[in-house]
Design goal:
With 419 residues, the chain is mainly β. Helices cover 5% and strands 38% of the residues. It folds into three domains: 135 residues, Galactose-binding domain-like (Jelly Rolls), CATH 2.60.120.260; 137 residues, no CATH class; 107 residues, no CATH class. Strand 24 and strand 25 form a beta hairpin.
Length: 419
Amino acid sequence: MEPQSYTPTADANDYYSGRVLANINDSDFTTGTQWQNLAGPVKLTLTFASAVVLTQIQTAGGYAQTGHQYKPGRIDVYRGDPDTDGVLLTSFAPDYVPTAYNFVNTVGDTVYTLVLTPQIGMSTLAVKEVVAVGDLGAGGGPGNISVGAMSSHLATSLMDHVFGKGTWPASWPGSNYLCLLTAAADDADDGSTLVEPVGNAYARVQILPANMAVAANGQSVNAADLTFPTASGGDWGDIIGLAVCDASSGGNLLWYGLLDTPQNVANGVTAVFAAGDLAFAFTEAAGLSDHFRGRLLNHCFGKTQITTPPSLYLALCSTAPTRTSTGSTIVEPTEGGYARLNIQAADWSAAVAGETQLANDKTFADATENWAAGSDLTHLALCDAVSGGNLVLWAPMFNPKSVDAGDAPTVSDLRFTTT
């Protein structure tokens, strides 16, 4: 066989599953790529920088400058090199028009080989286009595509739910639908103003609770493939971002984010987000513990419901809590008179734009000793138990202060924002 080698110009890790992994001879499609005076098949080798799982070949028969069409009589697709230990994945007779050929492959490899056999009696072979489509192999993908921007609608709904000012969703678990975006979303959008592909079989994909893993380390990741319908009748265009809404059309915007690299969904392509490709998380600016991040995410994606209102207790801290802190590791006063304060639903105002605040001042008991050995108290924290328990939220004080014996500290204008 006449060897021809092709190495993709971009590392496979630059793509996400269900997208083009290699576009062969993409600079020479005008008149077709030709091999003349052939005695036999042509071997076209695809070499990737990291393992990919090839599951589709798209091709169109080529033509020579004379106008004669010399499409291959057959294309054999191998994982590896057929001259050594290659495994035949599929064989097909390509059409003259662009056509997608799907096949089963569950093993990743860095080398794939296409064997192009000329039509019987012809010594010239031409290929208009060959596109390789698949998923990233070993390693499970390019790393999580983080969808970390929570809409104001979702943030406000969650805060009202947690602090006993409302119930979200009205019927748990709620609905979540993944959307593809051809223009960036922002917080002013809702599910009706997002710019999504139109027609050509495009539809949002429902994210069922079973599709998501239980949240860990403050983020929630898809545990199953999320597969869109195959584009049919035309292209969907360049996909630059993602969103999650609470309805199959229209509805409220819940999450949104951008892809690191825009991806084109052409006619015949099936867009797939493989398990582990998507990660939903909160911004680092939010004073949320990993424990509470996980509870919110599990509530959002139907894994575990937050019953409302939970018991919450206000604590004073002399050092800043962290995401991994617990109700037992935050640094509170140990001196006489100090105790956490129980906070009731009536103590909170309704959330606005994802922010909730105390509607009433809260006063601690009189200190019988200097708290924190006379050091300033710098942070406020909410925990789910009168002692120990889990850390929920924390915030810095506007004016750190010490509490001396005889003082009865009062907390006012306490605000928490979720983003």
